[in-house]
Amino acid sequence: MLTLFRPGLEPLEVEFLFLDFEGTLATDGRIHPKAKDKINLLSKRIRICVFAKGDPAPPEKTFRNMKAEVVYLTGGSFAKQKLDRLQELGPGRTVVIGNGQDDGPVIEDAGFGICVIGKEGASGEAVRKADLVVTSLLDAFDFLLKPLRQKATLGK
Predict the structure, then answer these.
(1) For the purposes of burial, counting CB atoms within 10 Å of the CB of 28, is it exposed (0-12), middle (13-18) or buried (19 or more)?
(2) At 107, is the secondary structure helix, strand, or coil?
(3) What is the number of domains present in the chain?
(4) What is the pTM of this model?
């Protein structure tokens, strides 16, 4: 379990982290090696779920040596599939990191939502619904791993 400190509010006991693959975890289909290291570090404390769209065959190699559950979304509404999974595991125990239009609703419903504005940009909806906006996935991971960053950003 990971505790997210929010001054003025009760600490949030986090058990799950949701990440979107395209545009959030990966840029042009590739995951930064330090991101894999941080996922593996976080996975010692919380369960990590990576959402990827489409066929599992092409990105399968990409997820090698990474301790996360990969959920392949197919057809229909990607946002609804993510929301269904969030409801199943518990929104109040989940941090969501995303950047796309279909991440906005999940970011909003999560216990804590982070929008990453990376090289591919971010949808306005994801930015508006987030509790925190960062410009690097590595910064989002460090925010979760380093309580002093939480106090500096969320303190009043």
Answers:
(1) exposed
(2) helix
(3) 1
(4) 0.91
Residue 1 lies in a domain: no
Residue 5 lies in a domain: no
Instruction: Characterize the bridge pairing of strands 30-31 and 26-27.
Output: antiparallel
Range of the domain at 97: 12-154
What is the model's pLDDT at position 142? Answer: 94
Identity of the residue numbered 15: E
| Amino acid 62: pLDDT | 76
* CATH code of the domain containing 109: 3.40.50.1000
Evaluate whether 150 touches 2 at the Cβ level (below 8 Å). no
Q: Average pLDDT, stretch 43-56?
A: 87
**pLDDT for the residue 60:** 65
Residue 63 domain flag:
yes
pLDDT confidence band for 53 (50 / 70 / 90): confident
> Which DSSP string corresponds to 54-81?
S-STGGGGGGTT--SEEEEE-SS-HHHH
Q: What one-letter code names the amino acid at 119?
A: K
Q: Within 10 Å of residue 94's Cβ, how many Cβ atoms? A: 25
Our measurement of the distance from residue 63's CA atom to the centroid of its chain's CA atoms, rounded to an integer in Å, reads 15
> In which band, very low, low, confident or very high, does the pLDDT at 75 lie, cut at 50, 70 and 90?
confident
